[in-house]
Amino acid sequence: MLNDTYRHKGMRRKLVELLHEKGISDDKVLQAIDRVPRHLFLDNAFVNFAYKNQAFPIGSDQTISHPFTVAFQTQLLELKKSDKVLEIGTGSGYQCSVLVEMGVKVFSIERHRSLYMKSKKKLNELGYFPKVFFGDGYKGLPGYAPFDKIIITAAAPFIPVDLKSQLKIGGFMIIPLGESDTQEMQRLTKISETEFKTETFGDFSFVPMLQDKSFKS
Ligand code: SAH
């Protein structure tokens, strides 16, 4: 059941060391990864793979991101406790729980109803209470905007206009951008209502951020 054993904790400690070696230097991010029982976000068949640096299926043709990718995107957010953060693509809920462990206020949107239901339940069972929504990430959450930080965890073909406007001035958007097999990780800083600064951080591989399709159940 929801069992986090010493064996799991030991494997997680090794994963944290690996992430550190691979360049994750923010201690708060490493501590958050150390606290979240990643194996409980995977289907039973994959539990033994939970602490390898790999992506895995979570149902509905979606994947839980690599731990390195989760750690890397989280580090790029440079979170402060008072931050209000919007995640696009709840998926398994793993990245979402890492954000909650960082002590920030988390909002997350998922377009697959079954994943939304499953992940919301799982998060709550584990004691995480982010605000999770079934909806279209391209539209964001106008009723809760503006956000200090926005993190997109699916491959975006372009920068969603609504998300740009829902970001606070001085805030960051972390976005894997591009439609081919790999996407360029970008960090946009909102300089003014119309200006953004762009920094790039190499290639990653995500499932697509889907547009304008009827919602999935
Ligand atoms: N953060 C997730 C990663 C899941 S993969 C985790 O830690 O497990 C990306 C997720 O984005 C998938 O669940 C997919 O259904 C969702 N997604 C794709 N397009 C979307 C959209 N337009 N709005 C919201 N979610 C979307």
Description:
- There is one protein chain.
- The protein has a domain at 54-204: Vaccinia Virus protein VP39 (Rossmann fold).
- It is 28% helix and 26% strand.
- It has helices spanning 6-21, 27-35, 67-76, 94-101, 113-125, 161-165; strands at residues 56-59, 62-64, 84-88, 105-110, 131-134, 147-152, 167-177, 183-190, 196-204.
- The strands form two sheets. A seven-stranded mixed β-sheet has the order 5-4-3-6-7-8-9. The chain has a two-stranded antiparallel ribbon with strand order 1-2.
- The protein is globular, with a radius of gyration of 16 Å.
- S-adenosyl-L-homocysteine is lined by residues 62-65, 88-89, 91-92, 94-95, 109-112, 115, 136-138, 153-154, 207, 209-210.
> How many extended strands?
9
Structural class: alpha/beta
Radius of gyration: 16 Å
Task: Identify the CATH homologous superfamily of one domain.
Answer: Vaccinia Virus protein VP39
CATH fold topology of one domain: Rossmann fold
The tally of helices reads: 6
Q: What is the residue-averaged pLDDT?
A: 94
Query: How are the strands of the largest sheet arranged?
Result: 5-4-3-6-7-8-9
In this structure, how is the largest beta sheet organized? 7 strands, mixed
Low-confidence stretches: none
Helix-strand string: HHEEHEHEHEEHEEE
- Termini, distance in Å? 26 Å
CATH level 1 class label of one domain: Alpha Beta
What descriptors fit this protein?
single chain; 6 helices; Rossmann fold; globular
